[in-house]
């Protein structure tokens, strides 16, 4: 069947209307080209057609049986698509960028599109997992030629260039955010797309990787699983009938927002299913849920025989493994490492073994993390947590265990990393939320209070609320940008861009405190700024917040929002200080009682 498809694909796509030099020896090249593609597709379809999940890690299911069609939303016009036919989608979307959080199904979508494209016989689909290019010393087209065609055809690069020029390919480029040097890679990729613009490009990435600026692409977000489709997703997991019904009922009756959000992510929904089997009660906090997830994954390792507990391959117990993971998590998290090769794992685990005096075989620990507990997953030599949120949770647990003096230093360092752009606010929001849940007192005392103190000090400099807030949020000394840039940014032509042209240090830290309130203010400011520039089009090449005309035109219009932010900061400060005072007072009273006894 596959050979028939590839034969037709080569005849209709590759050699139709080819150049004369190719036609002269077409039969020879048809045979070689067909065999190379057939070898490639046999290997890829065999690899992708069966699908392992953390529920069925030992008995993979057929991809077609488990796949749930995902919804994506185009950002420039908010249209929602559910892709079933790649060819139909590509008729109006030749260059597509798919943005989704970890576990949202980006790679699964790429695999589905790739497998369907082989059947549709319109173009030659090529799926590239972009992290595979990290050790490759060359460009994308060289990778395609050298890896896929293995450089066994003397004129393969000439054939490749011919087909690239014709637009014979669909390139599925999965995991842009996983490229180790994505700044230089972005230029390489943009050049590749521009040189070969007749082809179709389908790129996936997590948010925050700045892939949005690759020319030509329309950006889409992967939407969460629709609440009404969750039962369908669960039924595809081949569970016991009674368990399936109990899980679906628990979701229908649940009204906790964080669980609802959690369940919209395919990977996290699978984790929910595993956890439910052992503890069907839904906790009131996300951090408690993560702890249950980890405990459940360790429990899954144990035998069902009463009183029997198997040893892990490493001979470490659960708490020892978790202590190792907590140390690994905080180091890797702040080194911005979310996927690891063995060299990195050995380096970090060796370091932990040296200062902890704990002895273990690292390879056996890796086996425990992947096979015994499924806390980690492995894909072609690359290791990662089954979901990044578990890494964040273990990092938060590590911070909680620090002594108070070390916590003070830690949060000073955290603040400086945010200000210096070495840590992205979006990357640490979930970590901070988890840490707040498990250690709220220290979170406020050692982190939030110092931030609010800086904000209040800044506001005291100028009693005019709009000017104070604007100068607080925007760096008036450096806000001099071209008109075209402002219009592009203010008009949201590139969604996902965090206005780095505008943001100064305090903005980044305030975003942690104020969540959507600050973002709404920022949106209002951009709208007013865009109105001002549109009205003065042709007269304004660049702007500065020191411009008196600008202040007179815009600041009065956003005064209510400025006053709202000011009030919010003052109220937040009072609530936090009252909370800290209450905790410290309670602790003193408890200490007195203990001393009396």
Q: Could you characterize the architecture of this molecule?
A:
The strands form 3 sheets. The protein has a 7-stranded mixed β-sheet. It starts with a helix and ends with a helix. It has 597 residues and is α/β, with parallel strands linked by helices. The chain has 27 helices and 11 strands. The protein has helices at 2-14, 20-24, 26-48, 63-66, 86-90, 106-120, 140-148, 156-166, 182-195, 230-235, 241-253, 257-263, 266-278, 286-299, 318-334, 342-356, 362-372, 388-400, 404-419, 425-438, 440-460, 465-473, 483-490, 505-514, 516-535, 548-554, 559-596; strands spanning 50-51, 61-62, 71-74, 80-82, 95-99, 124-129, 169-174, 200-205, 218-222, 376-379, 382-385. α9 (182-195) links the parallel β7 and β8.
Write a concise synopsis of the structure shown.
By secondary structure, the protein is an alpha/beta fold.
Rounded to an integer in angstroms, the radius of gyration calculated over CA atoms is 27 Å
Q: Quote the average pLDDT.
A: 75
Q: Say how many strands there are.
A: 11
User: Uncertain segments of ≥5 residues (pLDDT<50)?
Assistant: 151-155, 301-310, 475-505
Number of discrete helical segments: 27
Give the helix proportion (percent range): 55-70%
Shape: globular
- Beta-strand residue fraction: 5-15%
Strand order of the largest sheet: 4-3-9-5-8-7-6
- Biggest sheet, open or closed, and with what strands and sense? 7 strands, mixed
Give the structural class. Answer: alpha/beta
Termini, distance in Å? 82 Å
